[in-house]
Amino acid sequence: MSPAKALHIKTYGCQMNVYDSGRLADALAPLGYRLVDGAEGADLVILNTCHIRAKAAEKVYSEIGRLRPHKARRRAAGGTMLIAVAGCVAQAEGAEIARRAPDVDLVVGPQAYHRLPELIARAHRAGGVVLDTDFPVEPKFDHLPASDRPSAISAFLAIQEGCDKFCSFCVVPYTRGAEYSRPADALVAEARDLVAHGAREITLLGQNVNAYHGAAGGLGDLVARLAALPGLLRLRYTTAHPLDMDDRLIAAHRDVPALMPHLHLPVQSGSDTILAAMNRRYDTDTYRRVVERLRRARPDIALSSDFIVGFPGETDRDFAATLALVAEIGFAPSFSFKYSARPGTPAAAREGQAPERVKAERLAALQQLLDTQAEAFHHRAVGGRATVLFVRPGRHAGQLAGRTPHGHAIHAPAPTHLLGTEAVLAVVAAEPHSLTGRLVETGVGRAA
Ligand code: SAH
Ligand code: SF4
Ligand code: F3S
User: Fold this and answer.
1) Does residue 402 lie within any of the structural domains?
2) 448: pLDDT strictly greater than 50
3) Separation of 260 CA from ligand 1 center, angstroms?
């Protein structure tokens, strides 16, 4: 065993990055690296970055700037602090990072993480920056060692990575590469391992998670297999694409009790013209039909979405159609973004780029409507009961926090030993972003 070294990982972007950061820590544990909270004094700092919008990408360079004095202090004291940039900015701008940020020692794209130990050794030897943004043929996940860390009670499991959809605004097909599904047997084994380390809920992750084809019956099949694991109480999956909601998966929402009645199903826009320009490959009627099928299978299902406003060419009328669709469908708390032109994506070069003022106005109007719906969503729960999985201590002493099946954040006075168990709560109040509950019954759900 090598002597202990301090590893600090800062994670940006989506849940896939959160999952990857955990696996990076696993991959580095055999080399003696132990996770620490702050960058100061770390032997290795990994910035796991996101490229989805310009703002997200710019954060990386300012963070590198903040690390510079720590690195210099370390060097003055005779030590070394390696700075590694991982994630989607690394993949998209690897060479530019190497040029712009001389303090960076290592740039590693999301498909090359299993090579990290070797890259670190090279970085220690090299004078300049070590760069690996290949898309190797071997799938990375199956080359990363299994974890011996305790698992979060609500854990992530990446089942699919990459995207073949090529929406005209999106960098993901370029940063994460072609769609790849992990074999179902490996996933069942990893899920079993997560449960053995304390997980009670697993969220299956993929950039296009329901395009999963590692089991004969797709994601619906995998969900059914995982739901049979003893000790696993809850399953969720994200992010789903409306076009890949097949019958089997929709039926799982009816037939598999562990599959939670909350689905993030981004529609992006309520205008058919804009959806076509985005290359989303569905129109609003197709989306409505998917929602209908889901609600028939699981009438109480809560749906959330992502929206982009100010896409090139979006008129007031197009935007009004988005507001109308939101009013019609009725969403659980959702995300909305100003369109951000990303280098190399088709939409970035188009005419009709909206001025910042228009984007800001539309975003404010949409968020107002979404906030109203989110508040109504929380208020509807008050006075009822909900089965909650406690996943962490609450903000105040003597409280635990968790989620309802429909995805509301909720907290209640409860003893610590109930962490990791399901309990029935009476919902007594709603705040804008969460619910307050009172313990009614413990020891419900399937025992671990
Ligand atoms: N695979 C998912 C989306 C992943 S990216 C899907 O297809 O729904 C997460 C969200 O970021 C997207 O849903 C979209 O709303 C937003 N997004 C992606 N690219 C963007 C861009 N260039 N500008 C603004 N928002 C963007
Ligand atoms: Fe990006 Fe999602 Fe479209 Fe894929 S389906 S290109 S990840 S927005
Ligand atoms: Fe960002 Fe890459 Fe995820 S661009 S949203 S970290 S897939």
Assistant:
1) yes
2) no
3) 23
Find the CATH number of the domain harbouring 186: 3.30.750.210
Residue having the nearest C-alpha atom to atom 11 of ligand 1: 52
What are the residue ranges of helices labelled H in 85-214? 87-100, 116-125, 172-175, 184-196
**How far apart are the C-alpha atoms of 362 and 60, rounded to whole Å?**
28
What is the signed CA dihedral for 323, 354, 335, 23, rounded to 10 degrees? Answer: 150
Give the whole-angstrom CA distance, residue 365 versus residue 362: 5
Contact 241, 210 (CB under 8 A): yes
Q: Please give the distance, rounded to the nearest whole angstrom, from the Cα atom of residue 110 to the centre of ligand 1.
A: 18
In a domain, 137, yes or no: no
Residue ending a domain, among 221, 243, 260, is 260
**Full DSSP string of 234-296:** EEEEEPPPGGG--HHHHHHHHH-TTB-SEEE---B-S-HHHHHHTT-S--HHHHHHHHHHHHH
Return the structure tokens found at 81.
């602090």
> How many angstroms separate the alpha carbon of residue 208 from the centre of ligand 2?
7
Token reading at 213: 């084809």
Pocket flag, ligand 2, residue 301 (CB < 6 Å): no
Domain range for 423: 382-442
* Residue 443 neighbours by CB under 8 Å, 6+ apart: 421, 423
pLDDT digits (tens, 9 = 90+) for 130-172: 888 888 766 676 666 677 778 999 999 999 999 999 999 999 9
Chain-centroid distance, C-alpha 297: 25
pTM of the model: 0.95
152 CB-near residues (< 8 Å, 6+ apart): 198, 199, 391
For ligand 2, atom 1: residue with the closest CA: 170
Nearest of 389, 427, 266, 272 to residue 332 by alpha carbon: 266
In this structure, which amino acid lies at residue 274? I
pLDDT at 446: 57
pLDDT of residue 110: 94
Give the confidence band of 56 by pLDDT, cuts at 50, 70, 90. Answer: confident
Residue 405 sits in a domain whose CATH number is 2.40.50.140
Last residue of a domain, one of 260, 295, 317: 260
Residue 339 has which token pair?
Answer: 């369109």
Distance separating alpha carbons of residues 253 and 292, to the nearest angstrom: 13
Residue in the structure block whose two tokens are 């984007």:
359
The reply to whether ligand 2 has any atom less than 6 angstroms from the CB of 165 is yes
At residue 433, the pLDDT reads 86
Is 75 part of a structural domain of the chain?
Answer: yes
Say what the alpha-carbon torsion angle 119, 124, 128, 131 is, to the nearest 10 degrees: 10
**Beta-strand runs (E) in 183-246:** 201-205, 234-238
* Structure tokens, 319: 């935007």
How, if at all, do strands 335-338 and 399-403 pair? unpaired
